[in-house]
Structures are given as structure tokens and as C-alpha cells.
Amino acid sequence: MPVLRTLSQAVGRMLPRPACGCRTSAVPVRFLGSSPRQIPADANFHSITFSETDHPRVLITGGLGQLGVGLANLLRKRFGKDNVILSDIRKPPNHIFHSGPFIYSDILDYKNLREIVVNNRITWLFHYSALLSAVGEANVSLARAVNITGLHNVLDIATEHGLRLFVPSTIGAFGPTSPRDPTPDLCIQRPRTIYGVSKVHAELMGEYYYYRYGLDFRCLRYPGIISADSQPGGGTTDYAVQIFHSAAKNGKFECNLKPSTKLPMMYIDDCLRATLEVMEAPAKSLSMRTYNINAMSFTPKELAQEVLKHVPEFQITYNVDSVRQAIADSWPMNFDDSNARKDWGWKHDFDLPELVTTMLNLHGSGTRVAQAN
Q1: pLDDT at res. 237
Q2: Which residues of the chain have pLDDT under 70?
Q3: Which sequence positions are flagged as catalytic?
């Protein structure tokens, strides 16, 4: 029978009671939806554990996005190349395909995803498949399918097979009624984008599965992530990536946000390290399932001023995109990540000066800087 992709079937699978001592509801488990994909009554469920000296078997979904490749490289150095599988629905470039295991995986295909987990003895799953903010607003139905239905598939499979599951959240999970400077871990969340709504949904569903079924769900709310290795992917904070491409290429940049738009940001190396650290943190040290993490907050004007210190002929102009600006104006200006720093020792390495120096060097603007000086 072909795999159906309806929302009701994505959430309609029977799940096992947890074998751990986590808090659970007294409501008997039958079905989570009106059209359940039933699991045989004699099926055996085993919670996979490994000792401190063993390596997890890792699957990364949506692995060809901004963070997946970098995370795979970091995890392969830590756990061994063959223990980390990168997956996506797109064809990978040759250098990625040959750098370690890569397989096709469609998160909307429940049967395919389940086979991958079983056949490769996966123990950790990083779920990066998502449509970002601006792209999601242009295609709400696709964003709803990928960001919500796909999440349900991942939650059910992770619970069934006892995986440790990481799902990233974002500054987009907050809205205009949230406190913006700073934004704490726990506060009102009323986002006005399908991307933000789907991330709040992911946070709450992950926490629910933790308390209801014992799923080891872990989540970080990322600020805007800046990387030299990837092209912008349709996010509202992508101007902070594009500015370095333009500065290194022709010394000019047209920004689609107002010069005073302040948003939290982070260099990719800090982001990936934080992700690994929260996954390796002892469960007893975690006081919550979803944490803010932060490194710096700046405006386009402040970023441009820092770039000018290295590229004096750099010019920035502003052509505000009303959709992106409205999104940015509803997001936090600064994250309060004190709980992450207290619970599992989070500490960032890159502030704005280090970020700009690193990004310009990686973009090969050394020659331009030398000529300008």
C-alpha cells in the first residue's frame, strides 16, 4: 500500500508506554488520530542505550541545509565517519557525497524513514528538515506539510525506537506580544508566520512526548546563524550572511531590513558546538526541554560599521522588504540564555569583531582588505 501523507495519519500511530521512570498520563494509550497506522500487538519495543565509551549512531534529516553539513563534519570527527548519516531529498554535491554516508530520506515518507532508522541502528536523530520564515510565507501549504507533518513522523519513530531526538527551534517561535529585550526561555509565544507556528508546535509536542512517552527530546532556540559555507536559505536573518558575500565580491550590499533592526545572531561554529553539547549533557542536568542560546545581538548598521573597519570602501544601501521587516519586528532583539549557561555550561566564543574578521577571511577578502589599507 502506498504511504499516505495526510496529517491525520502522520499523527495517528499507536505509541509504546515508556520503560523509564518519566512522568506519564494515566490515560490508556490507543490511538493518537482518527486513522491510525496500527502496530502489531506482539511488536517489541526496546529503548536503545549506550555507555559513555560507545558512539551513537546518528541520522541528520534535511542535511543539505545551512547546518546539516557542518554538524555532520563535527559529529564525524567526534564519533567516526561511518556513525553519522547525512540525508536529504536533494542530490548532494560530490564533495559531500564522498565525505561520509549519505542517503535519500523524505521525512513525509513514514515507511522510508522508519526503515532507515531500523536498518542503520540509529540512536540519535537531528531533525533539520524545515522551510524557513520568508520561504514558508510564500508557500504555506508546503511549509505546513514539511514543518508539521514531517515532525509528527519523526516524533513517532523516535519514540517507537527509543532515540535521542534533537529538533531546532528559532527566534521565530516568538511574536510581537513576546518580551523582546531580553526574551526569556518561558514567556508568551504568539508568532505570526507559519514557520514560527510550526516551531512552537515542535517545542510543545516534543515536551509532551517527553512527559507522556519518555522520549528524550532536546531543543535549542537558535538565533540567526551566520556561516561562510552555505548560501542564504530564505530566512529573515540571512542579510547577515549576504553582506559578507557582497563585501568580498564587489564591496556593495543592499539590505532588505531597516538599519536599526536589532536581532540576535551567532556564528555557525558556536551553534554546532552548542547543539552537540546539549545532546551530550546528562539528562539530570536539563531543567527544561527547550533552551534559548545566544552569542550577540546587532543591527545591519552596526554590522556594516564593523565590516568598514576591514573594507573601507564598503557601501551599504537599504531597500526594505515589508514582509521580512514585519517578521523581524515581531522577533526578539536579544535572547536570555542564562538557563543554558547554568544547566549545561553553554558559553559562546564569537562576538561581533571575531565574527566579521572570520567571515571576511573565509570569503577571501584579504586581498581587498590589503588593497584598501
Answers
A1: 87
A2: 1-53, 230-234, 365-373
A3: 195
* Helix axes of 300-308 and 239-249: crossing angle, nearest 10 degrees: 30
Decide if 290 contacts 185 (C-beta within 8 A): yes
pLDDT at 233: 62
Distance between CA atoms of residues 111 and 262, nearest Å: 43
CB 306 within 8 A of CB 262: no
Whether residue 286 contacts residue 219, with contact meaning beta carbons closer than 8 Å, is answered with no
The identity of residue 25, as a single letter, is S
Query: How far is the C-alpha of 132 from the C-alpha of 193, rounded, in Å?
Result: 10
Peptide bond into 182 cis (omega under 30): yes
Nearest to 316 by CA among 327, 333, 300, 330: 300
d(C-alpha 125, C-alpha 61), whole Å: 8
**Predicted local distance difference test score (pLDDT) of residue 132:** 79
Residue the block writes with cell 586581498:
367
Q: Which residue has the cell 546539516?
A: 68
Q: Looking at residue 3, what is its pLDDT? A: 40
The Cα 306–Cα 65 span in angstroms is 27
Find out whether 202 and 149 touch, Cβ atoms under 8 Å: no
In b/e form, how buried is each residue of 105-128, taking b as 16+ CB within 10 angstroms? bbbbbbebbbebbeebebbbbbbb
Cell of 203: 517545542
Q: Which of 124, 221, 229, 242 has the alpha carbon at shortest distance from 178?
A: 221
CA geometry: angle 334, 338, 341, nearest 5 deg:
120
Residues 6 or more apart whose Cβ sits within 8 Å of residue 205: 151, 152, 155
